[in-house]
Structures are given as C-alpha cells and as structure tokens.
Design a protein that fits this description.
Helix content: 40-55%
Bound molecules: adenosine-5'-diphosphate
Shape: globular
Strand content: 15-25%
Largest sheet: 9 strands, mixed
Number of strands: 18
Length: about 475
C-alpha cells in the first residue's frame, strides 16, 4: 500500500512531544511491513544543519492559498526505508518556535495545501493520506473540496488521527476565506464551525474516511463531555469510523542496553543502580540504596495532573524519597517546583528545559516514574520508563489505563501503581505504597523491573491495526 503521512513534527528531525515520537516510529514500522511510506513535515529552522546536509533539493513550485501565491521548496531524505519530504518556505518556517506564532493558522494551512499540491510534481499518488492533529486537519478538507475530482488525485482515502483533542485549531470566521482560501459557505453550512469558531479538528473528523485516536480508552473517553472538549457530540455521531489504536515506542531508540546518553548502558538491576547513582550526583542529590528516586519528565501543564502534585508535594517530600523533575510549561508549575526546591533542597532536583539526553538519564536512574495525568490520550513516557526498568505510578485514564495495570502482590500481576479518582491523596497513597514495595519487598520489586524491561511496546502490532483501518476504507 502507498501511505502518505503529513505531520507538524517528526522525530528525530523535530519534536516537542508524543506526536513527534509517533511520526518517527509508525511510518518506519509500516515500511518494515513492506509498504511504500512517505512522510511530509515543514522544514523548520529548528531542523539542524546535520540533517540538511543529507537532504536532496527536489523541486519547487508555488502554492495558492487564498489570494496568496507562496513559494514552496521540496527537500527529501531517506531513512529506515521511509522517504521524508520537507516543505520549505522561510517566511513561514524560519521562526524561533514551532508553534505559538501569531499566524499559526496560515502557516499550517499553507503546509496542508502544499502537501497536496506537490504530489504530481513527485510523480507519486498515495492510496491513503494519514493526517495528524489540527495542524494538518485541513488536508482532508482541501482534498475533498479542491482535489478529489482531479484525475491525478481521484480515489485517495483519508485518515485523521487525534493525538490530543485539547488542541483543535480554532480560528475566527474571517480567516476561513481570506487566509485559508475556503469559501465562507462552509462556515454558513456549519461544516467547519464549533461554538461560533472555525474548528479545523471538527472539519477533519467529518471530512476523513476514518478517524483514529491513540488508545482504545481515549477513543471511548472523548465521546463523553468530560474528555471531549466540546467535540464529544461530533465524535458520538461519527463513532462508526472512530478507532482507538495504542501507540508504541521506538524500541531501538529507547534501549537501556545501547543508549549513548547513559553513563553505563545496562540490562539488569545492578547496571540500573549505577545509573541511579550517576543521576543523583548529576542532580546534586544524595541517597542510599533504600531511598526511592521518583522521576518526572513531561510538559508542565494542567493536563499532566500537576495540581495533584501541588496539593501534596510537601507530603511526598517529607518521606525519604528523591524527586527528579525535567519539564517545561506553565509558569505556575515551574514556580511550584522551584519553590519546592527552596524548601527541600536535598530532596528534589528541578530542570526546566527540554533535553532528550537528561530525559533518558532520568528514565534510567529513577526507580519510579510519576505521571498522574488528568487526561492522557496515550502517553509514551510511562512506556519508555518501563523499558528502562522504572515503575510507573499513573492515574487510570486513556492510554495510561491501557498500558499500566496495578501491581497485586499476592497474585504477582501488574506492571505499575495506579489510582482512579482525580484526587491528590489517592495519588499520595499509591506513591507511598510503591515506595513501600521498593523498600520492603525486594523480590517483588525485582520481578516488576525485570518484567517492565522485557515488555514489548514495539510498533509492529499497532502498525498492523492501522493497515486494517486503511483497508477498511
Ligand atoms: P505528550 O505528547 O502529551 O507531551 P507523551 O508522554 O505522549 O506526552 O510524550 C512526551 C515525550 O516527550 C516523551 O518522549 C518525553 O520523554 C518527551 N519529553 C517531554 N518533556 C520533555 C523534556 N522537558 N525534555 C525531554 N524530553 C521531554
């Protein structure tokens, strides 16, 4: 099958979160299964010179976007059996940040139009176009409105994946025609509208042949008002084409036996202990073998359940534990951790930055990994943690519920510690339970670590499920 992906971030070229990881791994898994897979991504300034040197300058054309006629260069690169195409326009993509610009709507509308316009130039017609989140939500819309009837595009199917329903691409009515080049009639008909705004995610749900999201539980949850962020009625109406497929992780990129970020790659608990000592000394902390180290890596936002952490942070740090935090995000939570550092300088380390290297050192050097998300479409961090033998403590929601089951000592089952209610003291209780098992039940702990490191979170199974969805349409 000929499968085309369009996404606003693709690891290892550019990544801010889970979407980038998925785009770095799923296409390669599909290519390994024998499909012709090509991935489109903007050529941001953030994509380094190292990668640019490997790219081939393929062609350029002009893309019509409303009244604008914009330059579009196409570069390509082959990796892991996948062809990556980078869409070049310095006006749109040479910016200090990937998202958060005043004209994000226009930037990603341009990208969405460009990926369709370039196909004939590349002499390639995909069977299916798979788009991801609001930034590429206009691809199926443009396809249906402007391309589907043209001979060189006829019969292509579209799939849209929701990686996070909280970000829907909402804009004022005025941008639809003037910026995106879509007739205002599609506002008046209600097709592209939610709560009075142009809503790109809603439009993609309606326009695509199939809609997927990144875990079976999240697929159920987003059909309810609590999780649906106002799109739940649209998803209920379209549940016949909604599928929940769990993400995997790149088992080679995240492998404690070969990870170059670690002081000592490892395959067992003794090797992990060396990394724990290295992490503590890197963070300026001390602790003996009985002191559990709890790691946290992620965006510091409400979604990640940080108000629960805020409510009981002093209680957590009153115990004999070390907390190692890596993340960037809301000022409120950055300050919360900095304040905790002032109160408990010997218990907590706080790094407010983005560092893949430090992230891996934390996955390797921690005993426990705390991820009490309020909502979690899939979550990769808990799987990466397990791969490094670090036992997750999670709230039972979305993909966390689908990947982590509660440890039950007398049954010898489970791979982590979980709580259900969005309640800080329930979380504190399981943190203490987990630390108790770590300190007092070594055989059980060792089994948890060993099972975690041996679990298969690879992409092969999920890639097959995507192929089933492609075939179904
Ligand atoms: P989300 O997509 O909601 O951000 P996921 O758990 O699905 O959450 O994926 C987050 C990914 O980004 C993981 O690979 C995690 O290690 C990485 N990550 C998040 N924050 C940081 C950071 N500050 N430094 C390095 N890696 C980070």
């Amino acid at each position: 099958m000929k499968i085309m992906f369009a996404a606003s971030e693709v690891a290892p070229f550019v990544k801010t979160g889970g979407l980038g990881d998925v785009m770095g791994a799923l296409p390669a898994a599909l290519a390994a299964a024998g499909h012709d897979v090509r991935v489109f991504c903007p050529l941001y300034q953030a994509i380094g010179a190292g990668w640019r040197k490997e790219m081939t300058d393929l062609c350029h054309l002009y893309v019509q976007l409303g009244w604008r006629n914009q330059y579009c260069g196409v570069f390509s690169l082959e990796k892991d059996g996948v062809t990556y195409y980078f869409i070049d326009n310095e006006y749109y993509f040479v910016r200090k940040q990937i998202y958060g610009e005043y004209d994000d709507g226009e930037r990603f509308a341009f990208f969405s139009k460009a990926v369709l316009d370039v196909l004939p130039e590349l002499g390639w017609k995909p069977d299916v176009i798979h788009t991801n989140d609001w930034q590429t939500a206009l691809v199926p819309v443009y396809y249906n409105l402007m391309f589907a009837a043209r001979q060189e595009y006829q019969g292509i199917k579209t799939v849209f994946t929701i990686h996070n329903i909280a970000f829907q691409g909402r804009f004022g009515r005025d941008v639809l025609e003037y910026v995106m080049g879509i007739d205002d009639a599609h506002y008046r008909s209600g097709f592209m509208v939610m709560d009075g705004d142009v809503n790109l995610m809603k439009a993609a749900i309606l326009a695509s042949g199939a809609v997927t999201t990144v875990s079976p539980s999240y697929a159920e949850e987003i059909q309810t008002p609590y999780y649906g962020c106002r799109l739940d009625p649209i998803l209920r109406d379209n549940s016949y084409k909604l599928h929940g497929i769990l993400n995997g992780i790149d088992m080679e990129a995240f492998d404690p036996a070969t990870d170059p970020a670690l002081c000592k790659p490892y395959t067992d608990l003794a090797g992990k202990q060396v990394n724990k000592e290295a992490l503590l000394s890197l963070c300026g902390l001390t602790g003996d073998a009985d002191t559990p180290v709890i790691g946290m890596v992620g965006r510091l936002t409400d979604q990640k359940g940080l108000d629960l952490v805020e409510a009981v942070l002093d209680d957590i740090l009153a115990d004999d534990v070390r907390l190692v935090v890596l993340g960037k995000g809301d000022w409120r939570y950055e300050q919360m951790f900095l304040d905790a550092k002032r109160r408990h300088p010997d218990k907590i380390s706080v790094s407010l930055l983005f560092s893949a290297e430090l992230a891996n050192q934390i996955y390797a050097g921690s005993d426990l990994f705390l991820m009490p998300s309020k909502t979690e479409p899939c979550g990769l961090a808990q799987m990466i943690a397990l791969r490094y033998g670090t036992i997750p403590i999670v709230r039972e929601t979305g993909g966390l519920k689908d990947t982590i089951t509660a440890f039950v000592d007398y049954l010898g089952t489970g791979n982590g510690f979980t709580f259900y209610s969005y309640n800080a003291h329930d979380m504190l209780h399981v943190i203490r339970e987990a630390c108790g098992v770590y300190r007092h039940n070594r055989p059980a702990w060792e089994a948890l670590v060993k099972n975690g490191m041996e679990s298969d979170f690879g992409w092969a199974r999920s890639a097959e499920k995507y192929v089933e969805v492609y075939r179904s349409i």
